[in-house]
Amino acid sequence: MRRRNLSIAIVGAGFSGICLAIGLKKAGFADFVIFDRGNGPGGVWRDNTYPGAACDAPSHLYSFSFEPNPDWSRRFAEQPEILDYLRHCVTKYVLTPHLRLRTGDGETGEYGLLVAACGQLSNPAVPELPGMDAFTGTMFHSSRRSAPTHQRHSVGCRERRGAAPLRPAGCAGARTIRDGTSPHWW
Q1: Which of 19, 34, 96, 180 has the largest CB neighbor count within 10 A?
Q2: Where is this region: Disordered (predicted)?
Q3: Is the dihedral of CA 11, 12, 16, 18 positive or negative?
């Protein structure tokens, strides 16, 4: 009789992937790998580093039930604090040996189970706005922006859910700041 491969491949090292990995370890299962295209755990909280990035729900909801964080510094935690919390969980539950980062090079493997934990906000949804092709200022999506712009006119685009509004601090010196938020789609 052929033995079944019970190893697990988890795609995504954000909240969902980390939560699943911790659950597997707590259940005594250690044969899993967490793949992520980024350079560390955290998912959207690693990637969204625009000025003022913060959760849009009370901070205590950004904690796992088995690892509460009573020490959030504010009601709506900012991106660095949420990312620190996720890194804390990875360290505490010894997940680093299971991480395979900067993936996407075509490496293949054989696993008994594949879990997609890449999240609904891992790829930005950029709306088609009239006049985009003629705009000569800075255009960005919040998930692909990190440094403040010093342009006179800026257009920022973000998903409605999971992102706090773009802050004017991220567009210092701009006379025109537009938030091209797309409508809800769920």
Answers
A1: 34
A2: 166-186
A3: positive
CATH 3.50.50.60 in the chain, residue ranges: 8-116
3-state secondary structure (DSSP) of residue 153: strand
**By C-alpha distance, which of 159, 156, 149 is closest to 180?**
156
Q: What is the mean pLDDT of residues 63-77?
A: 95
Q: Is the pLDDT of residue 62 over 70?
A: yes
Classified as helix, coil or strand, 54 is strand
How far the first Cα of the chain sits from its last, in Å, is 47
In CATH terms, 8-116 corresponds, of 3.30.750.24, 3.30.450.80, 3.50.50.60, 3.40.50.720, to 3.50.50.60
